[in-house]
Amino acid sequence: MSTLYDLDATTKDRTKVFESGEIPVAVYGLGKMGLPLAAVYAENCSNVIGVDIDPEVVNAVEAGDCPISGEPGLSALVEETVREGSLSATTNIKAAATESEIHVAIVPTLLDDDQNPDLSILKSLLKKVGAQIDAGDVVFIESTVPPGACRDEILPLLEEASRLNRGEFGLAFCPERTSSGRAIKDITGAYPKVVGGIDEASARVAQAVYESINDAGVIRVENATTAEMVKITEGLYRDVNIALVNELASVADDLPVNFREVTSAASTIPFINVHEPGVGVGGHCIPYYPYFVMNWLEGDFPLLRLARERNDRMPEFTIDCLQDQLASVGESLEGSRVLVLGVAYKPGVAETRATPAGPIINQLVKAGSEVFVSDPVLDDEKMGDFGGEVLPTSDILRMDLDAVVIVTAHEEFTEIDWTAFDPMVIINGRQSMSVDNDKHRIYTIGSGLESEGNL
Ligand SMILES: NC(=O)c1ccc[n+]([C@@H]2O[C@H](COP(=O)([O-])OP(=O)(O)OC[C@H]3O[C@@H](n4cnc5c(N)ncnc54)[C@H](O)[C@@H]3O)[C@@H](O)[C@H]2O)c1
């Protein structure tokens, strides 16, 4: 029987074959993005085996439980697809790879200690998978990789491991364009899927599969390297644009400029999307992807490097603002009781990777402040890792504080009755968070001193 790779058919007919359940799929890596992807695949093709090296993850999925929290709709989808027999899980890479025709890799791709892209996890997985693939199988890479990685590293590795030649099996880069906290929505159609094949037949299979999965459709780009560049460019665009406004934020002390007004007025022209200045850039993607270019491709990338440096300096800038505002009311960082409000890198998401709260807390502790931290979406253990005394958000109102630094614009913080505190200094690190009162001395990054307060 023909495989999807060999099949001489229209995209629509290929999609039908994929949806028939005849094509076994393995999804390698059942993490924050891999499990939602595996569950959505299972919903569409009813024939998925999820593979992870972590037995706890595999046991949970096998029991129909969801080891990932904070992803709306995921628990129900895992429970349903496992119950229906569409999704199962294993730690046995070899067995899953032997049985499957489509292989989807979504394991971590990291930076090493020198900030060079580290593809060792992905490559070691693909060596094992490659050793089991048959002619006609197709490998989809969803993990973010540097531009050129599929052509220059992954294809040769798969050829060697499989002892098959290019053209006998397929390879396509199909980047995960999702954000934590909205994985299912993004995967199933918040915006189109981008796919790029190492050859025409690979791209055709990727298009057919993702047209089933993603209601917003598929953008099939020229080749795998173009698709890699699309994913990286999305991250670079964000990093550079955030750096631009972070740089402009430093003039807020000298000019009567409120960045909220600047953003909303300037962004009324269709090709302008002014970003928000803030305390820093966190998460799994934006702070890392510039290195997938700077430390991978030949050439000099001074703009990317400067943007990264600018964004990395924002926690320090935040502490400088706090120091200045405390000094103006005769206080200093040393001995001040400072609450860091929000530790997660993003509102509503229980994740702390590269959060600017880390360096902010560190610098406060070093300066001799008494530091408290509070975050309604994180458990105490995760918050405690960063130092400072952990407080439930419901308890902060009883605290006697000298200052608050708002790091994350969690929705819960909009409920805070700021007038219940004695006058203090507030450094508002997020333009999207409004702290509207004149009791406190309020400095918003990008808008400068918004209230002198009654201190
Ligand atoms: N998290 C995000 O918001 C996001 C968004 C877009 C793209 N991505 C990309 O997706 C990829 C995966 O990210 P994630 O956030 O899901 O990672 P994660 O750390 O949440 O999960 C990775 C999973 O892979 C498993 N794993 C590790 N080695 C394995 C192996 N050899 N075989 C099978 N499983 C293995 C781990 O046990 C873990 O369960 C990365 O390349 C990342 O850059 C992530």
TrEMBL record:
Reaction(s) catalysed (UniProt annotation): UDP-N-acetyl-alpha-D-mannosamine + 2 NAD(+) + H2O = UDP-N-acetyl-alpha-D-mannosaminouronate + 2 NADH + 3 H(+)
EC number: 1.1.1.336
Keywords: NAD, Oxidoreductase
A Pfam family matched in the record: UDPG_MGDP_dh_C
Record domain UDP-glucose/GDP-mannose dehydrogenase C-terminal: where: 339-423
Cross-referenced SMART domains: UDPG_MGDP_dh_C (SM00984)
GO MF terms held by the record: NAD binding; oxidoreductase activity, acting on the CH-CH group of donors, NAD or NADP as acceptor; UDP-N-acetyl-D-mannosamine dehydrogenase activity
InterPro entries xref list: 6-PGluconate_DH-like_C_sf, NAD(P)-bd_dom_sf, UDP-Glc/GDP-Man, UDP-Glc/GDP-Man_DH_C, UDP-Glc/GDP-Man_DH_C_sf, UDP-Glc/GDP-Man_DH_dimer, UDP-Glc/GDP-Man_DH_N, UDP_ManNAc/GlcNAc_DH
Record GO biological process: polysaccharide biosynthetic process
EC top class named in words: oxidoreductase
Keyword Cytoplasm in annotation: no
Keyword Protein biosynthesis: no
Superkingdom of this protein's organism: Archaea
Family in the record: Belongs to the UDP-glucose/GDP-mannose dehydrogenase family.
PANTHER family: UDP-N-ACETYL-D-MANNOSAMINE DEHYDROGENASE
Protein name: UDP-N-acetyl-D-mannosamine dehydrogenase
Organism: Halolamina pelagica
